[in-house]
Please model this.
Amino acid sequence: MFKTIEEKEATGKVKEVYEDIKGSRGITEIPNFWKMLANDPNELERSWNSLKQVMRKGALDPVTKELIYVAVSITNGCEYCTRSHSYAAKKKGATDEMIKEMISVVGLANKNNKLVDAYQVEVDEIYK
Amino acid sequence: MFKTIEEKEATGKVKEVYEDIKGSRGITEIPNFWKMLANDPNELERSWNSLKQVMRKGALDPVTKELIYVAVSITNGCEYCTRSHSYAAKKKGATDEMIKEMISVVGLANKNNKLVDAYQVEVDEIYK
Amino acid sequence: MFKTIEEKEATGKVKEVYEDIKGSRGITEIPNFWKMLANDPNELERSWNSLKQVMRKGALDPVTKELIYVAVSITNGCEYCTRSHSYAAKKKGATDEMIKEMISVVGLANKNNKLVDAYQVEVDEIYK
Amino acid sequence: MFKTIEEKEATGKVKEVYEDIKGSRGITEIPNFWKMLANDPNELERSWNSLKQVMRKGALDPVTKELIYVAVSITNGCEYCTRSHSYAAKKKGATDEMIKEMISVVGLANKNNKLVDAYQVEVDEIYK
Amino acid sequence: MFKTIEEKEATGKVKEVYEDIKGSRGITEIPNFWKMLANDPNELERSWNSLKQVMRKGALDPVTKELIYVAVSITNGCEYCTRSHSYAAKKKGATDEMIKEMISVVGLANKNNKLVDAYQVEVDEIYK
Amino acid sequence: MFKTIEEKEATGKVKEVYEDIKGSRGITEIPNFWKMLANDPNELERSWNSLKQVMRKGALDPVTKELIYVAVSITNGCEYCTRSHSYAAKKKGATDEMIKEMISVVGLANKNNKLVDAYQVEVDEIYK
Model:
């Protein structure tokens, strides 16, 4: 329905964000996600600025943040998101062992979340 | 529909798992989750053994694993799971700042997951 | 935001559906679900007629259908639906053992669904 | 990101589980799901052992369990899981009519789950 | 597992619904969705009748209804549904600008839904 | 785990956002959602700025945007979000009839989304 906005077509706000993405990430090609969001320049700008602010080093290191991002994406069944942020996690230093352990936690949590709903478990006082 | 199996009612496999939970966790009271699973002793045993194996220190430290667990639970909208594993995360050393940053990643990932579905973004060759 | 439409307030299409619910189910009080849907008489009628048609004995017996209904409701985290259809399942003959085994399948399926998404498993030729 | 572990590459725990899968199922080729899980031999072992324990005949027959498994997989939008367990259900004796009725229950339950959330229906006393 | 029922194979109830779809929509080819549902003629009939009743002009215009339909489909990650109802929305008069704004609302709502779950926000008195 | 940040405790960025919320919305009390987000002033600021930008009149009118927001919230089972944005929709002019029709679309879309997954419907050429 929408088409990617290629770099050579980018102008104004889109061009600026594209430059920032390439500079901040040290990459030479804009991923499809941003090239699709560019159909809505305000959404592109909001999403890129949020990503930069949220994923940078803080109390959590960037690798941990990427692993959390992938865990959510798996839970939502988003293939693009799972693949692109697994890639980002590895680029920032995540090992295969770390990714496999993250996956096991995701599997376990999804199972236990449903056991809680199935047995209608009440919240213990200590957790409130 | 089902009722919690209290410690004083526990026998056999259930009693053994309860003892193991208290010993491994250094707690004196069994949380409601396990007391409900005890209605199905095999499920209780499988779930507890998986949890012990998955959540222990490995390539990822236990705090990171708990944060990933909470991220999945938020995404699934499971209140009990969010509360109990936030509690566990803090007990194992997570700070409020770490939890707040995890939440921001979860919010961002949920938004971007849906933008990907909305714009039907194709997977870049580099991520395959 | 909306309020239940009580039996004494019911007129026309709503009154007819209420009578049919009581007659078909052998109950004397309309559950809250139908009393809320009654705010939109067409939705009430469509939903009740679909339910009657879908949940009746066919190639699958009514207990199996109720268990499948509960399995979906757990997966969606719908408390009302889980409770009301577990009740229905038991009324139609489901035992506690059957319900507990259904829950274990739900837990397992939810875990494996996510492992498939995590490892991006390709569909085997034989399953196509 | 990960690759399937083929049978000829399998050693130790992975090889053992592969043999058990082929023997228990009476198949000659390992499905992709297990060949991907084999990247994490502990997860492979846990998942296979759980599956064997949960899906075997108990208070519910194996066909009913497979249908419940498929119902959850449809609800989660997992194509691999829907296809592979529909296949398993048919192999164990499910007819096309049974599968179509299961699908109708899944459609209905998903709709009604959302009507409950939309109208914020309160749990009737009788269901508590 | 199931195959599409082509127009030339359609008989009885299926043929009638196919004619109604073509007439009501002013199209000459039945979309795959209906050709798959035709495997279960009762489900086909129920689903088509519900769609006709729900999506027609009422207090909301048909374009708004299609946009809401797409918003739900994005949230559920259903590619077919997102594509087919975006197509329908445009055919009924939705502009690209309207679709892009709908997408931004969907992204925002999905993020905020999870922030609410993360912070366990209590419902304000005014909203009850 | 976190507590609401009350207006009298608000300083700096939080105080500024609180003032903007009250001014823009013409309300005298800050809803709990914002008082919880205030635990993370950057998230509060990002979320409020996005909301203001996304929900204002554009190609879609504010009522339609609120209805789309509610449709997503119902689909995600978020009670707070469903209640607060139904309230907002009505305040901006949505009638009960509009809300009920939106709910019917949400119910229908959720059902059909799952029928598509169940029958593994392929995307028609015309929708690509």
Observations:
- The interface with chain D takes residues 1-2, 39-40, 42-43, 47, 76-78 of chain E (CB under 8 Å).
